[in-house]
Amino acid sequence: MAPQVTLFSNTGVPNPAKIAIFLEELNIEYEVIHRSLGKGGPDGAQSAQYLELNPMGKVPAIVDHTNNDFSVWESAAILLYLAERFSPDGKYSGKTLEERAVVSQWLLFDASQLTPNIYELHVYKRWHPVKDLDPSINEHYKTEIYDLWSMLEHRLERQDWMALDRMTIVDIALIPWLMLSNFLRLDLKKHPNIATYIGRLEALPSVKRAYNHHFNELAQSSMEAADRKRDLIRDNRWESTIQNTSILRKNGFEFDYNMHRTHVRVDELLKICPNARVGG
User: Fold this and answer.
1) How far is residue 263's CA from residue 210's CA, in Å, rounded to a whole number?
2) pLDDT digits (tens, 9 = 90+) for 201-212
3) What's 161's DSSP letter?
4) Is residue 226 in some structural domain?
5) What is the pTM of this model?
6) CB contact at 8 A, 20 and 215
7) Which family does it belong to (predicted)?
8) pLDDT (tens digit, 9 = 90+) per residue, 188-230?
9) Among 266, 274, 268, which residue's Cα sits nearest to residue 239?
């Protein structure tokens, strides 16, 4: 069957996962096309063709083949569009004016407050080349996140879902970023309602299908820190931040410019680049 929707994605970042989850929830036939972030060329998010679709040069973006190939970018806008297009009864976006207002306010809260702070911490923890230089940056974003989490924790004392008395696009928008809590070493013990909420989200069949089919790398980042470290030790592969990537290329190693990292064996790395900073 021809896809109803094309999703432009990148498997290592959370926002496209929101859209895949919702497409799974809606039982929509869709295809996923990978776009390399920060690159031109035919498969890059900075290619002229893709910039015509999404001038931001980011993912996600969709093309709705059931609506004259209409395209939408920005994950919150995509969720709203898909909800209205494929679930016009308001199940996921609100059935009344009041429900739609509540969904909108929480969706905008996520897009303008919660996700940006988790994103900054994620970038800092995963990719920043001097992340051990100033730990106050790490503490700043954690403090901001915990302040915002206090609102979520209070909200979840009274209900199972964030916006309404059922799952909505707000919950779907929150899933991928909250699932990074363990990787980011955020303290869920002090936020038991959020911890329960994350478990409820992870158990959704649509979430499992989306992650199993398209977001294995992101799922790896969502693992418990101890499990992730054990896998890294078993494979003897570590994230490495180095400055002279040409040395690696000359020795046959691939370097991902999007993520500013490479994966090599520690002993192999130190042979060719003795001053490399290696961390796990």
Assistant:
1) 25
2) 999 999 999 998
3) S
4) no
5) 0.77
6) yes
7) Belongs to the GST superfamily.
8) 999 999 999 999 999 999 999 999 887 765 655 554 444 444 3
9) 266
